[in-house]
Structures
1.
Amino acid sequence: MKCPRQLRPPLGLALAVGAFAFLLLFDLHRRPSTCAVSEKPRATRKTPAWPTPPARPRPARCQPNSSVAAHPDFARQPLRVRDFLLHRHCREFPLLQDAPPAKCAGPVFLLLAIKSSPGNYERRELVRRTWGRERRVRGLQLRRLFLVGTAADPLQAPKVNRLLEMEARTHGDILQWDFHDSFFNLTLKQVLFLQWQETRCANASFMLNGDDDVFAHTDNMVSYLQGCDPGHHLFVGHLIQNVGPIRAQWSKYYVPRVVTQEEHYPPYCGGGGFLLSRFTAAALRRAIRVLDLFPIDDVFLGMCLKHEGLKPASHSGIRTAGVLAPSQRLSSFDPCFYRELLLVHRFLPYEMLLMWDALNQPDLACGKRTQVY
Ligand SMILES: *[C@@H]1O[C@H](CO)[C@@H](O)[C@H](O)[C@H]1NC(C)=O
Ligand SMILES: *[C@@H]1O[C@H](CO)[C@@H](O)[C@H](O)[C@H]1NC(C)=O
Ligand SMILES: *[C@@H]1O[C@H](CO)[C@@H](O)[C@H](O)[C@H]1NC(C)=O
């Protein structure tokens, strides 16, 4: 603000450049009309890469249950808890982006169902390029889907919806429902996905449910799952036991008594990433139909398993807590360490790329010290 004079020459220059650019654009814009004959008809170019599935009727918007507000503790709950209670009964939301029918046309061995926030474009791109790449491993088909809601911010929402529409068109890997993508709505995302899978990808033998910031060693997962029967119970991950609701309001995991009176959670697997079989997915759907939704998604699945008389199990290769992710304290990381694991939480997008590249080096020699950088 001190030196407005100095702004003038660049401003003049900018105007000149702008005018030139405008002329150039105008010129370019006019040009196609002179060679329209050789152009292909526009309609053929607009054909989407994926055939669109038939439109379904839109469910009516779910109305908040205002009688929950009568509870004496309701008013002093944080907004996210009040929001959760008001909409706890809402389970039907329109699908904004669907997967192409080809997604599960052939036999799918492992379906990667990755929970992602609408704005996490870079994370999705890196997952697509690394461990989430759709391919055959040992002859078995891997498929990928991102599970997304909508941005709660009304200014952001239309923009990210356009982004997701574009990604769906290009990659055919977006399942987006019309609900606010928030931490306490992750259970809803899980429930809607399992319902979608029942009709649209029922033949997937196994599923990986996880977050978009994990590093999943999908080749190792296939080797491990090859020894399992999709028609039997399987639910493995980072097992968490002997914990209960956190009653401190400051916590991200705060769950007040108005949500549950229970002081203990059943055993469950950390939501960062867990594997389940086709059999167990069907069992979870049965429980989901009768249980009230619980705001913490991984705990909710533990409740569903318990309801069905099933137990989650631990897999030492799945670390969603307690292991040093590369970014935390180490300035470099050893791919040989990750070579043995199935899944590790908290990777930055570029770290995923480095690790994936290192693990796929044909001459990765373990035994002696090897580092990516
Ligand atoms: C609305 O909330 C009340 C009080 O918690 C509950 O009894 C009722 O079943 C709820 N209604 C629906 C549709 O979930
Ligand atoms: C979940 O999504 C619904 C639909 O968008 C919204 O009304 C509700 O407030 C959300 N709940 C939470 C806890 O964010
Ligand atoms: C799913 O698998 C069963 C048996 O393996 C088969 O009969 C059925 O046609 C398959 N469905 C689809 C949609 O591929």
2.
Amino acid sequence: MARVSTLWFIIPRFALNLTRSESTTVPFTSKKVVTCCTNRKFSSTSPKLNKEKVTVYFVDSHGNKQTAKASVGNNLLDVVVENEIDIDGFGACEGTLACSTCHLIFKKKDFDKLPEKPSDEELDMLDLAYGLKETSRLGCQIVVTKDMDGLEVEIPGGVADARESS
Ligand code: FES
């Protein structure tokens, strides 16, 4: 009895469902909880949102252009992955600002229109990027907006993974 009293203070929701007739081996299951949960619908996949899409072009150092449909709100790393754009070693740290392999070069006019300025962390990582230019940014930090339709970004001629330089 003293044990149940202790549980009452620690986990009162579960303690409410304990009765003396229930098995002592599985004390924390109750019909109340199961009934509650069977009425709810769970899904392991994320909901499909109808995001507006724009077209973004990725141009390599040989002038080869790859076309991507980019969902507004996604970053350019997501766009590369979702469209299976073939860029060697791109996005090695999966957007955690630790590698600089998602380095992209923007045209000056597009660079100036980017809504977000680079953070100090992005600038630090850009310093380690291959072929850095004044209009360089990290793709994982660039969120696609509606007015980016037709955007053309340059893929640098090489890749440097900042994690390998330390
Ligand atoms: S994916 Fe590594 S810094 Fe962008």
